[in-house]
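Hi F.,

I've been meaning to write this up properly since the lab meeting, where we talked about keeping a consistent format for the predictions we share between groups. The idea is simple: the sequence comes first, exactly as it goes in, then the structure tokens exactly as they come out, then a line or two of notes. No screenshots and no reformatting. I'm using this chain as the first example so we have something concrete to point to.
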Amino acid sequence: MNREAKNTRGLMLVATIISIVLMVIGIVMIVMDLGNFSDKSYPVMVGIGFIVGSIIIYGLSRAVGMAQMRKEEGKGKVEN
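Output, unedited:
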């Protein structure tokens, strides 16, 4: 495994950890104010934002990681 592939895997791991931490923060914020579950409750709305943001970060990190791996995979096949 070359250095760029290791860097890509490392970045994907860091982004995955960040997204999991953000999701946990969002869930904790929602659960803390579950009694006042409405659109006027700021902790609930911010918690939902954290959850949505974590999903976006996870998806983007996976997409970029796969694109980078495919790029590295294609380098060895055809050299122009």
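Notes:
The first helix runs from residue 3 to 32.
Residues 3-71 form one domain.

If this format works for you, I'll send the rest the same way.

G.
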